[in-house]
């Protein structure tokens, strides 16, 4: 079912009273606001609603109000495909933001490309933007970058042999493959390689096998959702005393709560500046953007900001900036303006796209973080 934000509904009513004069700029979104990936989609949806409201209060884009047409796909790729088609054919949006997961992103991606509508994904897999597709962009760091950030830290700690336990979901499988592809560049060998399904409730057998593998010096868990929290609890219950790494797919306070602060203590993962907003240096280029978003979101919803909402923040900022520079709502012109984005500071990093790069972030945008005393601290 289509949901218009309260802002959009109020806007429609206002336009009905005021009469003609203002055109609406329609942005589409398909997000996993409910279902197993709601920890991603819910803050993303809330962020888009909040930012549309703020943008319209400030005069919209060149005086034209923004309407957000938002669908909840529940994390189902088939629903995402249906909603993406509806956004293009029925709602006539000029750009799409969404794809909370890699699976839903790939469904939306096909519709966006076929219909030449700019699409900014909020999912992590490198396959979304590699190879480059003309109308597809993304805001999160890729899973390949996460592997590289983690292996850089492992190599600095003298770790040469690791065990890996990966989720078989789209994100987990993709990151597992990417880590295997780059691990040799860091002089590290994967000597134990286990997996688990999205519905598995106990990963003790896999972790026991990893612990029993000769030479293992650290463990890496590519995955997202509840699985990594279960792995973390099982890791703690087994008393495994080895450095433990997770992916950016669980970079949120909700993960610490789900896994338990004691179990998560000392765990490392690559994340964004948003998780350490209060610890950023005065001259950090992201400080102002990160702290403003955090304050606005938490005031609006009474809940902690998350990395995932930050991905939506950046996607909205990129699209609005591109529409402004395009001088209109022609999707092809918006696409061209997106690709020409340079130096746009977001919560995830500073974006500079090009014809060969539709992510626009390098490894320096990742912050290596560690969980200490139930919170996040920077390692580098």
TrEMBL record:
Domain Leucine-binding protein: 24-360
SUPFAM superfamilies from the UniProt entry: Periplasmic binding protein-like I
Gene3D superfamilies for the chain: 3.40.50.2300
A Pfam family that the UniProt record links to this protein: Peripla_BP_6
Entry superkingdom: Bacteria
Keywords: Amino-acid transport, Signal, Transport
Name this protein carries in UniProt: Amino acid/amide ABC transporter substrate-binding protein (HAAT family)
One example of a Gene Ontology biological process annotation: amino acid transport
Family per record: Belongs to the leucine-binding protein family.
Record flagged with keyword Amino-acid biosynthesis: no
CDD domains per UniProt: PBP1_ABC_RPA1789-like
Transport keyword on record: yes
């Amino acid at each position: 079912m289509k949901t218009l934000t309260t802002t959009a509904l109020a806007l429609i009513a206002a336009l009905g009273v005021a009469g003609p004069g203002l055109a609406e700029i329609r942005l589409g979104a398909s997000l996993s606001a409910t279902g197993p990936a709601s920890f991603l989609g819910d803050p993303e949806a809330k962020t888009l609603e909040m930012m549309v409201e703020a943008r319209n209060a400030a005069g919209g884009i060149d005086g034209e109000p923004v309407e957000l047409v938002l669908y909840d796909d529940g994390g189902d790729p088939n629903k995402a495909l249906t909603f993406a088609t509806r956004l293009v054919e029925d709602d006539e949006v000029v750009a799409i933001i969404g794809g909370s997961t890699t699976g839903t992103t790939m469904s939306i991606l096909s519709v966006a490309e076929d219909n030449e509508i700019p699409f900014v994904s909020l999912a992590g897999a490198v396959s979304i933007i590699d190879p480059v597709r003309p109308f597809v962009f993304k805001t999160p760091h890729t899973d390949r970058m996460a592997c590289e950030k983690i292996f850089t830290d492992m190599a600095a700690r003298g770790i040469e042999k690791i065990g890996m336990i990966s989720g078989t979901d789209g994100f987990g499988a993709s990151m597992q493959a990417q880590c295997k592809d780059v691990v040799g560049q860091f002089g590290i060998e994967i000597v134990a390689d286990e997996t688990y399904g999205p519905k598995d409730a106990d990963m003790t057998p896999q972790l026991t096998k990893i612990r029993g593998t000769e030479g293992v010096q650290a463990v890496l868990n590519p995955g997202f959702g509840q699985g990594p929290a279960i792995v973390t609890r099982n890791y703690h219950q087994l008393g495994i005393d080895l450095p433990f790494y997770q992916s950016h797919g669980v970079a949120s306070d909700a993960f610490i709560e789900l896994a338990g602060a004691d179990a998560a203590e000392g765990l490392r993962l690559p994340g964004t500046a948003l998780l350490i907003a209060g610890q950023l240096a005065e001259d950090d280029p992201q400080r102002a953007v990160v702290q403003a978003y955090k304050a606005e979101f938490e005031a609006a919803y009474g809940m902690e900001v998350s990395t995932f909402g930050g991905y939506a923040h950046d996607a909205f900022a990129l699209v609005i900036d591109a529409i402004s520079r395009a001088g209109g709502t022609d999707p092809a012109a918006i696409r061209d303006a997106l690709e020409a984005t340079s130096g746009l500071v977001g919560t995830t990093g500073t974006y500079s796209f090009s014809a060969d790069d539709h992510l626009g972030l390098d490894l320096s945008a990742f912050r290596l973080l560690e969980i200490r005393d139930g919170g996040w601290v920077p390692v580098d």
